[in-house]
Amino acid sequence: METYSISELVQEKTEPIDSADLVVGVLAEFDSDAIAKMCDALHSLPGPLRIAVLEKDKRESPASANSETAEKSLSSETAQKNPSVFCVPLLLTRPDSAATPAVSMFGAYQSVFAAAERLRTRGCCIIASKPEAVTPRWARQLAQPLLEGQVDLVLPHYPRRKFEGLLNNSIIAPLVRALYGKRVNNPMGPDLGVSQRLLQRMLGAGDGGSASSGRRHPLASLTPVALCENLQVIEVHFGARIYPPTDWTNMSSLLADVLTPVFLDMEQNAPCWQRTRTSVAVSAIGEPLPVSQDTGAVDTSRLVETFQLGNRELQEIWGSVLPPSTLLELRKLSRLPPEQFHMPDELWVRIVYDFALAHRLRTISRDHLLRSMTPLYLAWVASYAHDLQTSAAVSPERRLERLSLAYEGGKPYLVSRWRWPDRFNP
Known about the structure:
By secondary structure, this protein is an alpha/beta fold. Helices cover 49% and strands 10% of the residues. The protein has helices spanning 6-9, 32-43, 64-81, 101-118, 137-148, 166-180, 196-203, 222-228, 252-268, 270-273, 300-313, 315-321, 324-334, 345-361, 366-371, 374-390, 396-409, 411-419, and strands spanning 22-26, 51-56, 85-90, 123-127, 153-157, 182-183, 192-195, 233-237, 280-281, 283-285. The strands form 2 sheets. Strands 3-2-1-4-7-5-8-10 form an 8-stranded mixed sheet, with helices on both faces. α4 crosses α7, α9 (252-268) packs across α14 and α14 (345-361) packs parallel to α18 (411-419). The longest helix is centred in the N-terminal third of the chain and has 18 residues, at 64-81.
């Protein structure tokens, strides 16, 4: 994703204020009533604060006139109640019709962080989940640790459903845990709070900044930067997040968009994560919240068929990435019927680690490389679904904890291949 300067990201002056103690970026489509309730919750934060609530600029929408009227009315009403809270339209990064949803979302985070830096804020919170899931307290829960303590990154802990957030649960979260030694459940949010100190590390400003840090990814780099800099990270227990429906037939772009910055961070932070040997839990605020009964399911037959097709057509690419022993195991898997399909955790972990290494070495085009990983990811999903369906005693939490332990157990393999890639050339 192209990187812009702060002046380019914030395309007009953020009136009516030029500084704020706290910035709350609202990236989901909230109506004025939901924004008003969020502001009411923010009013209960202690101390005389100047809070800027940044809403996505709606002037491009067909209902722009009504939206602007609602914003003006809300700002006026809020000002009468508490003049320290302001609603400000946020102009996002340059629109790109070719950008995928994931890339567009990353750009939105970049815009909020740049606005927070311009406003010289003490902390920044972002609400990106759908309004149906968010309660008015979420923004306050993210902000309070930033303002009252020495916390630098506040991450959400959503209750887990069987088949939601699987890209995070199968790769991102266990990978971050194994690499950096902290058991964070959602390293990329998307709802989160960031301190001024961490913002400066991300934007390359202030003490501790560097030329390279200005190129950090606005979302994927947050947790790795915080952990490598020994900044304080905590989690907050939220209610269940509502995820968009998963299109299992079209995962290639999502894998490439999400894993590219994750693997780039691995490369940049290698001196940090190679020193870590074990993982520890992070502090959490609140109690886990119950969720309604999870009755979700996936069509494992189609996922297995996609893997079998990939095993036939992608041998040349996989052969340049994966060791012969892994290719042999995959060929054996491809012969199994869906009802018997099972991918061992250790095999999946080695695959992820080998693809991360190939990404670093530029074995082939990085985008092509990550897209070729799609059938393998779908194979893991099919195996995970089969495990949950065949054993009622296995909860998603227990199943994913086993996977996380496999990531930690396989880390010596990653470190060895990372340090001496030629010795382990497939």
